[in-house]
Amino acid sequence: MTSSPYSFLQHQQSARNAQTATAWDHFASHRTQITNQLRGIVGRCVGRHALRMCVLGAGNCNDLDLLELCQLFAQLTLVDIDRSALQAAVARVGLEASDQIEIRAPLDLTGLSPEFAHWSECLPTPGVVKSALERLRGTSQLEVLSGGFDVVLSSCVLTQLIDSAQRAIGEDHEEFFDLLSALRLRHIEHMLELLRGDGVGLLVTDLVSTDTWPGMRELPIEQLPQAAAAAVRDKNFFSGVNPSVIYHLLKNHPTLSAKISQVTPISPWIWDWGTRAYVVYGMQFRRSAHG
Length: 291
Ligand SMILES: C[S@@+](CC[C@H](N)C(=O)[O-])C[C@H]1O[C@@H](n2cnc3c(N)ncnc32)[C@H](O)[C@@H]1O
Known about the structure:
The chain is α/β, with parallel strands linked by helices. The protein is about 40% helix and about 20% strand. InterPro entries: SAM-dependent_MTases_sf.
């Protein structure tokens, strides 16, 4: 792999993607959930034609039924730090020559790959993380994309962005929370930047896995929302993805709420892929027509 500003995170993420590259069958129920959500969104886009969707963190596209999505959308833009994963995913379903699909990779959604590389060797002293975040403020990692999308899907990438921060400086670092908060906020801002007025963002994220909640598979599905809420109360969830915090950000954060007209939480589901299962949930929001 050639050296680029993204090399550090590219290596990290392509190693992970390689482990799930052939896991298409294991993603079936999760893929169905996401496809159903997207079908619902498209069904409500009455009067609009030639819809365009952007997917952040598309990777192996195991959670995307690309063939069906090409029926729903006139154009799909797939974004990831791992270009080979996207290329292989598109080729797997025979769409490599399709002009409906645009691959935008490698793109680093954190904008901090060189810093993460450096910090993982030499922990940043107090103030260093804040200065890096200051430098990043007001810049966009996605300005190369044209924007104006009808739908933007973030597909289980937020926990990966936060995990990269955890690996770089550790949760106990005094600036970890600032870093996590900035990455989360920036990610939602990216989604809004990419959406046209009245377009819909669908933020899907893994919440907790069987590593810390081994009994989740036995739970009757109708009990999952309450049980997931109890897990969150017990602080048993991945850092940075508390559904109430994300809902509150979308509704009340000054730079976000001014651009959002509607927020709809989506009930959790279980994504079981054999060796491990996850509780996953979604948050759907609409960009204001004039925000
Ligand atoms: C858990 S996977 C999502 C599942 C994926 N959609 C699939 O079906 O295989 C997270 C994806 O986010 C990508 N990713 C992680 N960190 C990233 C970053 N900093 N910038 C862009 N993409 C990133 C990974 O390469 C990976 O493809």
